[in-house]
Design goal:
single chain, about 300 residues, alpha+beta, five-stranded antiparallel β-sheet, two-stranded antiparallel ribbon, 11 helices, 11 strands, about 50% helix, about 15% strand
C-alpha cells in the first residue's frame, strides 16, 4: 500500500489508520495514525522540499518561544515522484467567528515580533505594483465569452461581468506603486483552516506554514482580519487594536494596506485560471465567496477604514 511506503520513508512506523483531511482548500493532507503516534502528512504541491526544510527548522524554535505550532517529523521525502512532509498532529477544531476568542490580534502581534528575532534579517521596505485595471479587464475578458456548460460557468460569467464594470468605474482608485513599510517575516495565510481553537475558543494551533515569507505587516493584518472576522467591524477593530499593542503601525499604513487588499480582490483572476487552465476545481467556491465579500467591502469602505484605525 502507498501509505505504508510513505510512512516508512518518513520514519513514522507501522500504519494503523489513514484518513483524508477534508477541511482546507488547496492542499492534500491526511491524518495518519501509526505505532509512533498521530501525524499530519501533506503532499507538497506548490512548495519545494528546501522551502519546507526552512519551515521545519523554524517551527521548533517557535514552539520553544511558546507558540502553538506543530512539531516537524523529519525531512520531506519523495515517493513515486511526489514529495511528502509530516508533523505531529495538533488537537483542536477550526474556528468559526463565534467560537474564536478576541486574543488573535495579540497572538499575531507577538508572532511577528518573534519571527523578526528567529528569522534572518528582513528588508524594511518592499515594492508593490498593483495590477492595472486595464490588464485585469483584459484577463477577465479571456474567460468572459466561454459557452456556459455548468453552474460554475454561469456564476463565473456573472462575476466577470460585474468585476469588469466595477474596474472600468473605479480604475482611478488603483493604489499607487509604492515601497511599503513596515515589513517583516509573516505566516502568509492566517485564516480559519490554518488555525485551531480549544473548547474555550483560544488558539491552540497555527498550521500550514508553507507561505512563510517577508511581507508588509499591514497586508497580513488586513487580510487576516477580513478573512477571519468578515463583516464584524467591531471584531476587526479589536483585532487591530490588540495587534498594535505589539507592532507599531500607523493609521495611514493600515488604510493603505486595506486599499491594496480590496484592489487585489477586485483584480484577482487566479480562481478562473486554476479552473480553466489547470482543470483544478478545488477553489471554485472561492470565486463567488470572495466576490460576495468584495461587493460588501466596496459598499462599506468608509466603515472598514474606521474599524482599522479605531484606537
Amino acid at each position: 500500500m502507498e501509505w505504508v511506503r510513505i510512512a516508512g520513508a518518513l520514519g513514522l512506523g507501522r500504519v494503523h489508520d489513514c484518513q483524508a483531511v477534508t477541511s482546507g482548500v488547496m492542499n492534500l493532507s491526511w491524518r495518519l495514525t501509526t505505532d509512533a503516534g498521530t501525524f499530519a502528512v501533506k503532499q507538497l504541491r506548490d512548495r519545494t522540499p528546501d522551502e519546507i526544510r526552512v519551515v521545519n527548522d523554524l517551527l521548533p524554535r517557535l514552539a520553544g518561544a511558546g507558540f502553538p505550532v506543530p512539531t516537524p517529523r523529519g525531512d520531506p521525502v519523495q515517493v513515486d515522484g511526489s514529495w511528502y512532509a509530516a508533523t505531529a498532529w495538533l488537537h483542536g477544531v477550526h474556528p468559526e467567528d463565534a467560537t474564536l476568542r478576541d486574543d488573535l490580534g495579540e497572538l499575531v502581534g507577538r508572532l511577528h515580533v518573534a519571527l523578526a528575532t528567529l528569522c534572518p534579517p528582513a528588508p524594511r521596505r518592499l515594492a508593490d505594483v498593483p495590477e492595472s485595471a486595464f490588464k485585469a479587464i483584459k484577463t477577465l475578458g479571456v474567460y468572459a465569452d466561454r459557452p456556459p456548460a455548468d453552474d460554475f460557468d454561469r456564476s463565473a460569467a456573472r462575476e466577470i461581468e460585474w468585476r469588469r464594470a466595477m474596474l472600468a468605474e473605479l480604475a482611478d482608485q488603483r493604489p499607487a506603486d509604492a515601497e511599503l513599510a513596515p515589513c517583516g517575516w509573516t505566516h502568509g495565510d492566517l485564516q480559519p483552516f490554518n488555525l485551531l481553537v480549544d473548547a474555550d475558543g483560544r488558539v491552540c494551533g497555527i498550521l500550514d506554514w508553507d507561505r512563510l515569507g517577508v511581507r508588509p505587516y499591514g497586508l497580513e493584518v488586513v487580510r487576516t482580519a477580513t478573512i477571519v472576522y468578515g463583516h464584524s467591524l467591531d471584531r476587526i477593530a479589536a483585532f487591530v487594536r490588540a495587534y498594535r499593542a505589539h507592532v507599531p503601525i500607523t493609521d495611514a499604513q493600515l488604510v493603505d494596506a486595506a486599499d491594496r487588499r480590496w484592489w487585489t480582490l477586485l483584480t484577482e483572476t487566479w480562481q478562473l485560471e486554476r479552473h480553466y487552465e489547470h482543470d483544478d476545481r478545488s477553489c471554485d467556491h472561492l470565486l463567488a465567496r470572495r466576490g460576495d465579500y468584495l461587493r460588501w467591502w466596496t459598499a462599506h469602505r468608509g466603515e472598514m477604514t474606521e474599524a482599522l484605525t479605531a484606537g
